[in-house]
Amino acid sequence: MPTAEVSLPDDVDIEISQLVEEGEFINRDQAVEELLSLGVSAYTTDESPNQSPDEDLFTQVVDDQQDPAIRNESDDEHTL
């Protein structure tokens, strides 16, 4: 298995130590490996930006709207 050396901020180091002490992980190596794996799997590199549900809803509402100034010529009684 490849190895890597990283420098961690003190607060992250303390949090990892606390997780090991609380029994969440067997040892520090397991904690770092699993936490890095979770972080990598959660990271996405989609080319399209993430849209929130609000943006999708707004787009749908705008797409469904019709301009009241647009007239259907077949219904127009006044022709020039």
Automatic annotation (TrEMBL):
It holds the Pfam family DUF7120. It comes from the Archaea. Residues 70-80 have a biased composition (Basic and acidic residues). Residues 44-80 are annotated as: Disordered. This is CopG family transcriptional regulator.
